[in-house]
Amino acid sequence: MRDRLTTSMRASHVLALIFVVAALCLAAFGAATGDTFYLRLGTEALIFAGLALSVDLLLGYSGALSLGQALYFGIGAYVSALTLMKVPSFWLAMGAAFLVTLAAAIIGGLIANRVRGVYFALITFGLAQVFAKVVYNTRELGASDGMIGVPVIQIGLGPFSVSAASPAGFFLVVLGIIMGLYALTAYLLDTPFGRVLTALKANEKRVPFLGYSVWRARMAAYVFAGLVAGLSGALYPMLRGFVSPELMFFATSGNAVISVILGGVGTLIGAIYGSVLLVILKSIIGSWTEHHLIVIGLLFMACVMFLPKGMVGFVRPRIERLLGREPAAPEPAPPSSATIKSGSAA
Amino acid sequence: MTPPVLDIRDLGISFGGLKAVDQVSFSAERHRITTVIGPNGAGKSTLFNLISGAIKPQRGQVLIDGVDMTGAAPNRTKAAGLSRSFQITNLFFELTVAENLRLAAQVLEPAGRAFLPVRRSERAMAKTAQMLERFGLTHRRDEIAGNLSHGDQRRLEIAVCLASEPKILLLDEPTQGMSHGDTEDTAKLVRNLTEDVTVLLIEHDIGLVMDLSDHVVVMHQGRKLAEGPPKVVRADPAVQAAYFGHH
Fold first, then answer.
1. What is the pLDDT of residues B194-218, one digit of tens each?
2. Considering only CB atoms, which residues of chain B are within 8 Å of chain A?
3. Which of A135, A313, B15, B144 has the greatest number of beta carbons closer than 10 A?
4. B173 and B154, same domain (yes or no)
5. What is the CATH number of the domain that holds B247?
6. H-state helical runs in B93-121
7. Whole-structure pTM value
8. Is residue B87 part of a domain?
9. Is residue B181 assigned to a domain?
10. Which of B90, B92, B140 sits opposite A199 (nearest CB)?
11. Total domains in the fold of chain B
12. Chain B residue nearest residue A207, CA to CA
């Protein structure tokens, strides 16, 4: 039985595959030419793509706009940095970031999920700002300077070991983790659990009458999104060797929302494309003019006006049509406008 | 003796000073159609909201299969076997017809399936196909629900309620806004539902009510005015004064 949402997700996977191939080409090219700058930039784009992914999970699927998703990104980054400065272990840092973000997202979720809509957006914004200011004023966490001196680590991957200082090596590790998070999110959204989240966005008021708890579904989405952001953030100090309170500021959350809208809300892979585009644009335009934010702002407005569904939202329906044409299983198709396409191509 | 599948006792709620539903008691017999009638503002839809858990009653009790479900949230009354439709079509308009049904049918699956891909939920898929067939929507299964005609949307609304195999079905004006032909089809459909479920209906079309109902409850200004078999109710002078008198 063909399923429209499954087909959409498969179309996103096609774009994800293209993305991974392009990324691998960059890694190979970068390694061959001894490039550092572009691989480091690409790694940073991927890390922020993880944050954008978590924003799209909430905005594009459960229908909740979070303006403070950087909170969990920042918590992940700080916990990772603190852990690495004590014990330089990749897996320990990721594990610690996971646990602390889990706890933080549950607490944040209990607060933010009391309200919805604009109020939800404002509360998530407020939570992140308050927490960022606390960090900003805490000397033990480096206050406004942040913390420097995160050691360069060796990442043990079974028999192999990759240094976080190796541009191509660490790029590949981050690519693996971010695409892993993408795959996990995409998988969950195509399960009955995930479909309830989609139902929340479509018509939250109807959901309890189907027997599902709206509160539980919203909490699950929020905590899962928090974890995705936190695990992405945990990679940041490994790349840059420092963390700063700016990671939790609104600019970080806002950039993630812009990435999602540029890439396409509710497409998942769009968040990743959008984030890469934004980081590249910032870097390129930033090298021409210090007023790069004006250019990005104009581009964002143009995108909202002319590509309201974002880049992926524009391309994906075409891929869906291609995928839909391949008959997965022979299906008795009664003549109707909805099924003529599959019938004529069979 | 088994308790009635749905038992309403002294149910009441006030909004401000207005007693929207006041001391209403009746029960719905298994595999029968019980219809609630009454002029606009009589409190029929509020009654449905109280029973389904959309609004908590201030007084009285709702028992489903003898279990007290008074004030339980809608997802809990749903789990207890009560499914309801809405007077104003309430679907997942951005999702496909099939997905609307699949979401409702998903509750039939064991909880462990919640984290497997949807195509593994064979029972929910089979139920979806069965509902599409039964409600004549198979050829529209991949259509976005918002694009359906009004009649098809009203049919889908009933199908969604039925897809979860409830014990009790609350239908709030299922034929609202339907053409004459569609209304007759829907009446036939509702009649056939009683093989599987107990139906509680709100309906305005008096002809339809008399044809369809096994039991009629008349409401007026929040209170129960009368109840009984359709013919008895129709002959009741108080009912005629309040309701049929204008015809």
1. 888 999 999 888 888 888 899 999 9
2. 52-54, 73-75, 78-79, 83-84, 90-96, 98-99, 102-104, 106-107, 109, 113-119, 121, 124-125, 129, 138-143, 160, 164
3. A135
4. no
5. 3.40.50.300
6. 97-105
7. 0.89
8. no
9. yes
10. B92
11. 2
12. B75
> Is B120 part of any domain?
yes
Residues B69 and B185 in one domain: yes
Predicted confidence at residue A334, as pLDDT, reads 43
pLDDT at A3: 83
Distance from CA of A231 to the nearest CA of B (A): 21
Residue B86 domain-assigned?
no
Contact A209 B84 (CB under 8 A): yes
The enclosing H or E element of A45 equals helix A37-56
Q: For chain A, give the longest Cα–Cα distance.
A: 71
Strand order in the sheet with B59-64: B18-28, B6-15, B59-64, B67-68
Q: What is the mean pLDDT of residues B125-131?
A: 94
Inspect the interface and report whether the beta carbons of A191 and B93 lie closer than 8 Å: no
Q: Residue type at B51?
A: I
Percent of chain B with pLDDT over 70: 98
3-state SS, A282-310, equals HHHHHHHCCCHHHHHHHHHHHHHHHCCCH
Looking up tokens 């699927």 gives A61
CA–CA min distance B103, chain A (Å): 7
Q: Chain A closest CA to B1's CA: distance in Å?
A: 29
Instruction: For residues B185 and B208, state if they share a domain.
Output: yes
| Interchain proximity A192–B125, CB inside 8 Å | no
Q: Which domain holds residue B122?
A: 92-165
Looking at the predicted structure, is the pLDDT value of residue A330 above 70? no
Cβ pairs A/B, distance under 8 A: 107
